Fold this protein.
Amino acid sequence: MKAIALLRENFSVSLTAVRTNRLRTSLTILVIAIGIMSLVGILTAVDAIKGSITTSFNDMGANTFTIQSWGRNFQIMNKRIRKRSYSHITYQQAVAFKERYTIPASVAINTWVTSGATVKYLSERTNPNIGVEGTNEDYLMAEGLEINMGRNFTPYDIDNAAFVTIIGNDLVTTLFKGKNPVDKQVVLAGHHYRVIGTLKPKGSAFGGSADRRIIIPVSNARSVFGTPNQNFYMEINPLNPDHADVAIEEAEGLFRLIRRLSPYDETDFNIERSDAIAEMMLDFMGWATLVAAIIGLITLLGAAVGLMNIMLVSVNERTREIGTRKAIGARSRTIRQQFLFESIVIGQLGGLMGIVMGIIIGNVIAALIEASFVVPWLWMLLGVTLCFLVSIASGLIPAIRAARLDPIEALRYE
């Protein structure tokens, strides 16, 4: 009980010292808070972006793979995707693949029309930034999209190149002002399309909005917007996720036959798994996490030096107080505890402020990219632990120095 009472007294003296030197204490707390804020804030934002990447690719279907003629050329840290672009894939080749593919799967045949269309309804019109894509009835499953109102395409719509469309949520808001758009007529490039369905909101991902799109039957896109070298691509989503690798091998072999390649010819198309890109991006975010941690730790190192300097100054300023306490019976251990407690209080106050600021800033960044809100429990625990260690490391030398002061010399100090 005596030891507990002594600890309480030392803690009370430490709090009094902190309150007495408000300006100096506030500046020290602010320095520590900035260090923790940079660490927790950046790591919170990184976690939010990771969650957004994972969600986006899971929505597309982790086992979905794409057969296309164009290649991707980019590098993420030490991993590189560098694929050639080949001659275009024709509609006949895409249809032949869908008809002859034996693995149970949904096969979406797609063609990209434009990303700068304007869509009209009566006197309302969108900005010229609407994406137009031609596809079939399997596209929604491959892309992880859901119908909000109305229905999906049917084989009849595809076979007859029907002038029907499914529109994204942004078009519903812009053109119809909350009214039901199903069975209404919209105008696209001078052609009237009947709205048969709307998509559930998806939000933005990787710089583009999934809600700012209009989808038409692939056969209609071919007849209305077709060009001599119109390019098509297929998205395949195996019904059994465990057969994804087999499905890819089967797809490659079949499409090589359709493209009339001999066993000695190089494959002249690209097969890309959606989860492969996600894994590369997550690896990149892992490097970003490491860089953020290094930046935060460097800032905390500066904060530790500042806290140690403040505590050393405090020892010098309170030399007579220390001498008086030792003269009336305070032990060196008691003096050491007092200064350590003071250092810990300052460090934890700075850490708490930094954690709160870091969570706010990290989630503001997440909100700007339309990622979900994140509470980084791991980084919060890391922040508290680091602040405690910084406080101990910064306060130990000043505490030892204070504890070693000779009471007679301390009382003479001016």
